[in-house]
Amino acid sequence: MADAIQTPHASQTKFSPRVFSGIQPSGGLTLGNYLGALKRFVAMQGQMETIYCLVDLHAITVWQEPERLRQQTREAAAGFIAAGIDPARSILFNQSQVSAHAELGWIFNCVARMGWMSRMTQWKDKAGKNAEAASLGLFAYPSLMAADILVYHATHVPVGEDQKQHVELTRDIAAKFNHDYKVDFFPLTEPVIEGAATRVMSLRDGTKKMSKSDPSDQSRINLTDDADTIASKFRKARTDAELLPDTPEGLKDRPEARNLVNIYAALADLTVEEVLADYAGRGFAVFKPALADLAVAKLAPISTEMQRLMADPAEIDRILGAGAEKADAIAQPILAKTLEITGMIRSRR
Ligand code: AQP
To answer: Residue 123 and residue 82: Cα distance in Å, rounded?
Structure first.
């Protein structure tokens, strides 16, 4: 996959390739998080330096019960490791243990414009009609996300389609900072969005994103679901009565069918064309059990390994702490230089 990764902006060759990405521990990890993000985090490991973060400060932009948040953060860390993130090859930590994220986030709050934030579709979706009652943190979310990325001078950010707008805003913040302070200090980071399942949809409604905070558990596959639950959710997934077509164009106005075919392709590392070559002319009575078998084969080992890791929470905390130390060592000099550029006095204490 190395050839799919683009190099940073031509004038910015001084930034060495570095990957940063994160997931909110705002619930259990879903198949959407796995295919849109985690599976690709694992694939990028070894291609360049990789830094992965459980963004707990982002999670509290909507209410989180404290003990539950701690549990979800440990469970997400177990999910990362079970899916193939090796803490010896990637830096893995939770965001709140590296204070440079929040500090740079504040500076970026002063760079980003209100108008930019109010145009973010995630803000509009999550705040809904009652924006007055939403937290200030939810509004400023993309500015903290820019800090997460840029405090490491990360050049590449693997994300699902829904986060593309936030990575573009990260580039806008970097460009405005560089312009305002007449420096070439922050890279213009590239989103890395690829594969058949960059937007996995709800199993109940093919027009809605699969999400860990959807009130319906039937709408998603959780990485902790057992084999029977996975099979039953795919069996009950909403579909139409048509047979599968022989080209991707035939799925154009069939969001539920397209979603299931995309999921199959991503899990099997096939193209949509290859999946349709095998299943064209077949109905869902054949396709759904095949998809369920494939999903169980791919996800059950992850779920089993997660359970094993979760039995030792102290070890998970140790891994996150060690990751935070390594992350902090990269972030601190970049934060210190940012403070110097912005005119803050840095006397030795
Ligand atoms: N349905 C999805 N399809 C593809 N990629 C997805 N991602 C999330 N859902 C899908 C990708 O997973 C990464 C982490 O996302 P996040 O947890 O930071 O936030 P999110 O995008 O808001 O995910 P959720 O599951 O919908 O969380 P809640 O319900 O808490 O808001 C990102 O790279 C994202 O693109």
So the answer is: 31
